[in-house]
Amino acid sequence: MGTRLAIVAPVSDPIKYRLLRAESESASVRKDLKVAVVLWCLTGLLGGHRFYLGDTGRSVAMLFTLGGLGVWTLADVLFLPRRVRVVNARRRAEVMARHGLLEG
Questions:
Q1: Torsions phi, psi of 54, nearest 5?
Q2: Which of 6, 7, 20, 62 could bridge 104 with an S-S bond, Cβ 3.0-4.6 Å?
Q3: What is the 3-state secondary structure (H, E, C) of 12-77?
């Protein structure tokens, strides 16, 4: 389920400009599932896909335990699409808040 920007009244030009800037910034910080999957394939035991998604603490733990002896690595392939969606939603919300736009 994606969140959408709720616009109730006609939007003035300054707000449209802020919205366009926020959407552009949001698009620039989005993480791509394909990239995450490729990183999982190449560096799964070392947590490369988690570094890509910004999970630094867990990435370091995977790095030193070889992916929890492979258990975390195998679990991650199942949860990777959801994790990418969560990361992208959080980043988008942060961008919208920074630009003073509320989502509803």
A1: 90, 10
A2: 6
A3: CHHHHHHHHHHHHHHHHCCCCHHHHHHHHHHHHHHCHHHHHHCCHHHHHHHHHHHHHHCHHHHHHH
Q: Dump pLDDT digits (tens) for 7-16.
A: 555 656 788 8
Amino acid letter, 72? W
Positions of the chain with pLDDT lower than 70, given as ranges: 1-12, 102-104
Q: Do 96 and 102 meet the contact criterion of CB atoms below 8 Å apart?
A: yes
Q: Measured on CA atoms in the order 59, 61, 64, 68, is the torsion positive or negative?
A: negative
